[in-house]
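To whoever is on call:

I kicked off a structure prediction for a single chain this morning and the downstream step that reads the tokens threw a length-mismatch warning. I double-checked the sequence; it's 197 residues and nothing unusual in it as far as I can see. Pasting both halves so you can look.
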Amino acid sequence: MHRMDDAFTLLRQAVELLPEDAVAENGVTVGDVLEDIERQEWEMVLGLLIEIADIHPVTVHFWELLAEAARQMMLDRSRRWCEWRAWEVQHGTVRATLSLSEAEGGGRQSAFHGDGRLRPLWDIGNRTAGGERDLNIATLWVEFAEELGPGETADVRLAPLSPEQWRHLKVGDVITMHEGRPSGGTATVIETMPPRT
């Protein structure tokens, strides 16, 4: 029978997947992470590993180890983020600055959680065989905010249901989010990242 590793073993395994010279944007090193492991600062270790992986390219397996460790530590948002990042490694992602419509203008009436649960439709310029507008689904993650409300603007990451249909987008393209009529907001593409596998 296969033994399930505990969260702490999983975090140690993730550290072993990083080169010794990997550094986060804030200067945190693999050595710093190892010191926190010695002090058994497990939530801190998870956070530091995520920060290092934001700068240093890592594998799907790395993110899977972190996601399972976060699940075991009951850190649900961190788990979802690590699962999201594993998906990005496999499929790529689109980053954009999204401005939601005002509630008075027919936009959404309340804020939504920004942790990858909302799956709106997007007009990204695709057309059906008959020339009609074809909307595409993409899950949305709000960067650096727990939620996003009517009239607010934030950088977001998009995980398309059919990534190949989004490959034509480039920096500066404007796309439209739809949750009904009228549109729910507009977004300007700020980065496109291809799959890394």
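Update from on-call: the warning came from a stale cache, not from the record. Cleared it. Sanity check on the structure: The domain at 93-193 is CATH 2.40.30.10 (Elongation Factor Tu (Ef-tu); domain 3).
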